[in-house]
Every structure is written in structure tokens, then in C-alpha cells.
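User: Here's a chain of 271 residues. Predict its fold as C-alpha cells.
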Amino acid sequence: MLKNFTIISVGAFLMSIASLSAGTITIFVHGKSGSNHCGTTTTDVNSYWGTNTASVSGTKYFVGYDGTSDPRTYGTCRAQTSLSTVMVARCKGVDTCKIVCHSAGCYASEYWLSNLGGTASAKGYKISGVTALAAASGGSELASALNGVTFGYAGNAMDKALIVSTARSSFNHNNTGGITVSHVPGYKGMAGASAILPGEDDYAVSYHSSCGYSTAGGLSKCQSSITQSEGIWPFNSNVTYAQYIGHVRAPSVPTEGLYENHSELCNDGWR
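Assistant: Prediction complete.
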């Protein structure tokens, strides 16, 4: 009886020690850039995030890659390889990870989750969620326009990956590996860009992308679903838009989004 009690006590003690040592690690995944941010450590190589990570406390790791490359690709200094390296090394132990992604970094993160081949937990990962800042997972009409007017000759691999039809057909956006993707959209647009981007935008992506809607369109609200009249009377009709499964608006963000532009949204990783 005493022996069993001792074994139980020792086990409880070891479990308490493990829980005390466990923490939360924030994994930052950057978006499109003209620079090479290649790295998988606590260093923000070439400072994509700048001082914006100060809004998040605790240990931080940075997924860095060539910002001109396709976010879906593997290889040296490629998003999928760098992300896999960090996630395997940091998110399968005692710590729990939170992913904070920006723009095309969310494209990379959602693509990675979708292709896990099961839920994140079943694969051994401890992930509390994804905070998606200005997510470009649904593509950008700016990339589509560039591709169209140049007949596909202009733009780098990142630009071509961000073509709306390409981004939306690249993977199953409804499969998030059992992880909730919380969107943080902005509506501080810019003349010129906003003339190309439908609905509200942050001068780089529209709400249909930054809110995780399953269909591209002109939207001004970020919520689970919205029905709006589209077309010219009397030929108008009601169209319903809904977010992908596993995608929500971040709880601290109002339905109209934030009055911030694409770059300013990098400061909202705390949400």
C-alpha cells in the first residue's frame, strides 16, 4: 500500500514539475517581402516584424524564408520547410504554440495545416490557435491584375501564388488541422489599390481574404456569414457569403474590422 502511494506521489510530483516548466511560444510567420528572411530561430532576420512583436509577451520564434518565393513550396529558405522545422522543434514538447501570421504568411500557415494529413493534435503538435493578420490566403486582386495586364510575364513566384483563383484552389481551406484561425482584418485602404480591391481592404487584400470567406467578393463586414444584394436593379439578387470551416473573426475585433492598413496590422499579434 505504501509502495503504491509512493509511486503515485512521485508521478504527481513529476507531472507538476512538467506543467510548471511548460509555456507558450509564439511562432511568427511573415508575408510577402523583397528581402530574404531565412531563419528558424528567435531572431527576426532582416527585421520583417520590427518592433511589432513587442505587443506579444513570452518566447518568440520566427519562421523566415525568401519573401519573393511561393509560400507553398519546400526547400532551402522556403516557407513550408522553415515552418515545418520550427513547428517540429518547438511545438511537440511541453510547450504550446500560437501561430501569428501576416498576409502571405497566413497562406503558408493555412497550407501547412491543411496538409498535415490529420489534426494537429493527432500529429503530436500542441497549437492553441492561429491569429491571422491581414490574411492573404484567399489571394489578392492586385496580384490577379498584375498577372492579367502583363499576360503572366510580370511578377515573382509570390505574386503568382497570390492570384485569387490560384490561392483559393491551392488547398482545402476548410481543413485547418482542427485549429481555429482567428482573423484580424483592416479597412484603411489606399487610393489606386482600393479601386482594384473589392469591398473593404487594407490596400493589399480585401475582406473576402482577410476574413476567411469561402467565396471572393466585395464585403464590408467580417462575420460568420453575410447576405447582401448584388447587381443592378431589377436584375439584383441576394448573395450569401460564409467563412470557411474553422475560420472566425478574432473575438477582440468588431464586425467592421480595424481602421488599420496592411502594415499596421502587424502590431495585432496579441489578439
